[in-house]
Design goal:
binds magnesium ion, Creatine Kinase, Chain A, domain 2, binds adenosine-5'-diphosphate, globular, 19 strands
């Protein structure tokens, strides 16, 4: 393959053990995108007319004709085979975690007993994977047995592990979405249309508004041998037990510290793989918890960025194994230290190169900036419960609401400057306050508020949704999530709000109000109506929970109940108006969400029960028996008074252990019974609620007692690697 790189080994001076880090001798620009069928490859491998037809279809979001598709397929196959691929697959995002693929070889019978390499437009454009094994929330039982996958021409095909992967949507025969990509594309389309409508008040030449996404992927690395010795990590992706190690993140010595060299070798390898696949990986650093790290690319158009994030997550897993690590993408792999998120940096921009959430230099530009920011504020306010539902999962539930991550309430951070501007507009809706001030950008012509530019150093790490200078950062998204879920809800909600805004402004203008006045009147109204979402204080505080409830924000903490927000009249209407989801799709997808929640907790509960009974109790019994033996011998050797004194400590331990062991035994029994009861429930929603209310709390109690035993039992016979090993070996 033209992509084979040569490496030169460099001693990493930062390492005491001198691990070698291999630096590629080729420059990134020489291999960037070499595994992607991008425009340059299209140009090279397609006939001129085919190339032009394909590019036109991509740019104008049009369907591709069958004859063009045949020619594209031929060229694409030739490129793929030239680059070592022998198989192809439709690559899609079902409602489970991750991605799905089914590989087929590029071979057909040649009629003479041999085979020829073949790939047709028909196979490129559309396939019918056996969809019955993918979650569909009953859609496919009610309607038609088949599901289709269809090529998303807006996302380029790529080669991964010798297979040509073709990004596709996955829908039922009757057109209902069975995946994340279909509704994401619909949401992006609706925000394009609505955004363009509003952006044209300021620049009539605007033809498209694009949604951008820059995700920041957090993850943990664990040594492979230790990982293998933890059945809970292997089966559930998190530790279901484990006492905090004496040192964890108190010293804050990991964050932005020197990256350990074995980790650096992994990161470099990963970045090269990313660059070969056209993923613009840029930033890497340590995170707050020991063995926790982050990778962030340069932001891209949301659909492509999301494909790249999904691809990254599978690459990470593969590359980590090469370095004898396992990557943990779970939101809360370890108790007592920070969990992992995936901040979604999100913005809208026009095809005229304007970032719509960035302040400009003129009054008009700043009015546009305020218009878009205030519409986002209104959408996030109205749909705060839905946005929370879009990011909650059984795994992210461990992170949300805990004291290090965003709280389980969606609020919006604006920073002092933007807050002051909005306050001022609400009091006095005149565009004078958005006046130009030389090169300094947005300025307030109000004496008491002399700030100049919107400064993104004004940060609040506790906010789940923060304005950061020229974009919003949706921080509540979980590290293992498909970002599409959050991006669908956010882009659709904002599109709907922008449409409503434009309807009102158009109406006012039609009845004679000057445009700027109409805009400002509507902005003022929205600020007043939605300012309850604005909160710049400490999102972790107890007062905020009460204050948020008083403001009418959603404060629900149970994941299965949060999903109800998808089915509120308000959500169903909003998704209907924007064409993103039908009610049927929403109902079906909620079934899947509740089912997934139940299954995740069910697996964890089983693993925990097994570990408690088969690993922990036997080890505790053995140690207890050693103590008993010791006491017995003491009693034989010493006179009774003295023996009692000498054996006192052991006796106390024996009793304490007995209490924990008895508690574990009875709690496991009760947990099994709670599961049995819950499993009898037919309704997926009620079942998930039962798991949340009756199984999860018992798991926490069992863990508590196991963690106590961990501190008592002889280290030599404790059957699982401890936190101090999992978190500090690297
Ligand atoms: P942080 O300080 O929050 O870690 P970074 O500078 O590392 O922020 O950026 C995080 C991500 O935000 C990167 O992926 C970056 O490309 C992305 N980003 C920057 N500007 C925008 C924007 N206007 N829209 C969307 N994403 C953006
Ligand atoms: Mg950030």
């Amino acid at each position: 393959m033209s992509t084979s790189l040569r490496f030169k080994s460099v001693e990493d001076a930062s390492s005491r053990k001198a691990v070698k880090v291999d630096i590629p001798s080729a420059r990134p620009e020489s291999y960037y995108g070499c595994q992607v069928f991008n425009r340059q490859k299209m140009f090279e491998y397609l006939p001129k007319e085919t190339f032009e037809a394909l590019v036109k279809a991509i740019d104008n979001k049009e369907a591709l004709g069958r004859d063009v598709a045949d020619d594209v397929a031929k060229g694409m196959m030739r490129w793929a085979v030239d680059n070592g691929a022998r198989h192809y697959t439709h690559w899609f995002h079902p409602l489970t975690d991750g991605t799905a693929e089914k590989h087929d070889a590029f071979v057909e019978h040649d009629g003479k007993g041999g085979v020829i390499e073949k790939f047709s437009g028909k196979l490129l454009v559309q396939q019918e994977p056996d969809a019955s094994s993918f979650p569909n929330g009953g859609i496919r039982n009610t309607f038609e047995a088949r599901g289709y996958s269809a090529w998303d021409i807006s996302s380029p095909a790529f080669i991964l592990g010798g297979t040509l992967c073709i990004p596709t949507i996955f829908i039922s025969y009757t057109g209902e979405a069975l995946d994340y990509k279909t509704p994401l594309l619909r949401a992006l389309n609706s925000v394009d249309k609505a955004g363009t409508r509003v952006a044209r008040y300021f620049d009539p030449e605007v033809n498209h508004v694009t949604s951008n996404l820059g995700w920041e992927q957090e993850y943990f690395l664990v040594d492979e041998a230790l990982y293998a010795a933890r059945p809970d990590l292997v089966m559930t992706g998190r530790t279901l037990m484990g006492h905090e190690s004496a040192k964890n993140q108190q010293l804050e010595d990991h964050y932005f510290g020197a990256i350990p060299s074995r980790v650096k070798a992994f990161m470099l390898d990963l970045e090269i793989e990313c660059h070969k696949l056209g993923i613009p990986a840029k930033t890497r650093h340590n995170e707050v918890a020991p063995n926790q790290f982050e990778l962030a690319p340069i932001f891209e158009e949301t659909n492509l960025a999301n494909d790249h994030n999904l691809l990254l997550m599978s690459l990470m897993d593969e590359v980590a194994r090469r370095h004898n690590f396992r990557v943990l993408l779970h939101e809360k792999p370890f108790g007592g230290v920070n969990g992992s998120g995936k901040h979604n940096n999100w913005s809208l921009s026009t095809d005229r190169g304007v970032l719509l959430f960035g302040p400009g230099k003129t009054k008009e530009q700043n009015l546009q900036f305020i218009t878009f920011v205030v519409n986002v504020m209104a959408a996030v306010h109205r749909h705060n419960a839905l946005l929370k539902a879009s990011i909650i999962t059984a795994t992210n539930a461990h992170r949300l609401g805990a004291n290090e991550a965003p709280p389980a309430i969606i609020s919006m951070f604006l920073g002092t400057q933007l807050s002051a501007i909005l306050d001022e507009i609400e009091k006095n809706p005149s565009d004078d306050i958005l006046a130009l001030s030389g090169k300094e950008g947005l300025r307030l012509d109000v004496a008491q508020i002399p700030e100049l530019m919107i400064d993104n150093t004004d940060r609040n790490r506790t906010s789940p949704f923060a304005f950061t200078g020229n974009r919003f950062e949706f921080r509540a998204v979980g590290s293992s999530a498909n970002c599409a879920s959050a991006m669908i809800a956010l882009n659709a909600a904002v599109a709907d709000q922008l449409n409503d805004f434009a309807d009102k402004v158009d109406k006012a203008v039609a009845s004679g109000t000057p445009l700027n006045e109409a805009l400002l009147n509507e902005i003022k109204r929205l600020i007043g109506e939605s300012k309850d979402i604005h909160f710049d204080g400490n999102g972790y505080s107890e007062e905020w929970k009460q204050e948020a409830a008083r403001r009418g924000l959603d404060t629900e903490t149970s994941a299965p109940l949060m999903y109800d927000a998808y089915l509120s009249d308000q959500s169903v209407e909003m998704f209907g108006r924007t064409g993103v989801f039908s009610k049927l799709e929403l109902e079906a997808r909620n079934e899947v969400k509740w089912e997934m929640y139940t299954k995740k907790v069910q697996i964890e509960a089983r693993v925990l029960g097994d570990l408690a009974i088969n690993h922990i109790l036997p080890a505790a019994t053995r140690y207890q028996s050693t103590l008993l033996d010791n006491v017995f011998k003491i009693k034989q050797l010493f006179k009774s008074d003295k023996a009692d004194t000498i054996a006192a400590q052991d006796m106390k331990s024996i009793e304490e252990m007995s209490e924990h062991m008895a508690a574990i035994r009875s709690e496991v029994e009760e947990m099994v019974e709670a599961r049995r009861q819950a499993n009898r429930i037919e309704c997926e929603r009620t079942k998930a609620i039962a798991y949340h209310d009756t199984v999860v709390p018992r798991m926490e109690t069992i863990r508590y007692h196991i963690d106590k035993l961990e501190l008592m039992v002889d280290n030599e016979i404790w059957p699982l690697p401890k936190y101090r090993e999992l978190l500090f070996v690297r």
